[in-house]
Amino acid sequence: MGQLTASNERVPADNKVSGTAYTNLVVATIGFALTFWAWNLIAPLAGEFDKTLHMSSFAQSFLVAVPVIVGSLGRVPVGALTDRFGARLMFPLMSALTIVPVLLLIPARESYGALLAVGFFLGLGGTTFAIGVPLVNSWFPASKRGLGIGVFGMGMGGVALSGYFTPRLWKHSHDLPFWVMAIALAAYTVVSFLLLRDRPDRVVPTASLASRLGRAGRLRVTWELSALYAIGFGGIVAFGVYLPTYLKTWYELSATDAGTKAAGFALVTVVFRPFGGWLSDRVHPAVVTCWALAVTALFAVVQAFDPALSPVGTIAFMVMAAGLGTTSGSVFALVAQVTPVAQVGSVTGIVGAIGGLGGFVPPLVMGAIYSAKSSYSIGFMLLSDLALAGAVYAIGRMRGIRPTATAARPRPAAARPPPARTRAGPRGRRPGRRR
């Protein structure tokens, strides 16, 4: 049998990972990737929609932003609902609900207003991150939790998959990407319902949704983690949205070349996210976060001097991608270690929401700076300053928060008072005598 931690978490005594835990991890990661693919269906096709709708630049940007904003904010209630009802219900439910807006994109693509409305509900696909984290957190022991959550985080590669495959499916048939995604989501709904399992001993909160979110919001660590995640994951989202534009504008690449290099950036972030989690299992995640952000800050300065794209610029972007990906993994390793088990979903929802929303400020800043100064250097220097500030805060404040498993070791049954003995204790007192 396992032992209970101070936060009422049952951890296997041998810290081994069960086959059920690995099954849950694989199924949840696949679901995360599929729903994130669906979440990103509009962005790769915005240019195609524009041929019919003739949107302004702002209108096109707003169209792309709607599902991302809704998906980010939706993680807050979905995370709290996962704490209450479990991932076995929430994952199939959100996957099934996402099918509806995916299919509605077929008739909606002829109207900008209809696309906005469907895009709002397409945001459901972006909420599954807040379902998978508490699921993986509950099944993996503390010593392997960082790697588990990092592997699950690789599902964010669904955005890159959508960027690559959706336009190619569109070329074969304008309805094909939506039908393919709807069928994949339907199949996953069935598979996830059959294979996903919540821990039998998981802590089920009884308080209302509002009170649980309120308690999570009152935790200081929630907002500290949110700020760090806004830098790490927010940076990934920002580059995913704006990097093609930057490469086309500054380095005069074709749309295809810019998209390919942006996909390479996304791939590096996906690979380094589990690395950040794995490393956090061996080194305090605050230390990992500090070094990852420091490296990001350094190479942001390099890019601020507008080097040639080959090789210095490419190296700078790849290293920044590695740093941001590592940060995303290490921050959620920290979430899993310092958050009470019954509140992991709620805290994950808030942190994930702020991280997603954090990605939409930098593109606006970069665009405004370029419009005013015809240069991106100031923007990269601001990124460097922000990453450096996060590095200092992580090592200065977050390093002092001890992981749950080491800060409060579970007490064995011997914690009960020992039976009275007839012989006097070390100082002449009888052990059974009240002091």
Q: What does it look like?
A:
The protein is mainly alpha-helical and 435 residues long. Helix content is 73%, strand content 1%. The chain is built from 18 helices and 2 strands. It has a two-stranded antiparallel sheet. The longest helix has 31 residues, at 220-250. It is globular, with a radius of gyration of 24 Å. The model is unreliable at 1-13 and 403-435 (pLDDT under 50).
Q: Summarize the helix and strand pattern as letters.
A: EEHHHHHHHHHHHHHHHHHH
SS summary, helix count? 18
Helix content: over 70%
> What's the N-to-C terminus distance?
35 Å
Topology:
Layout: E1 3-4, E2 10-11, H1 19-39, H2 42-53, H3 57-85, H4 87-108, H5 112-122, H6 129-139, H7 145-153, H8 158-172, H9 176-195, H10 209-218, H11 220-250, H12 255-280, H13 285-304, H14 309-338, H15 344-358, H16 361-373, H17 377-396, H18 404-407
Antiparallel strand pairs: 1-2
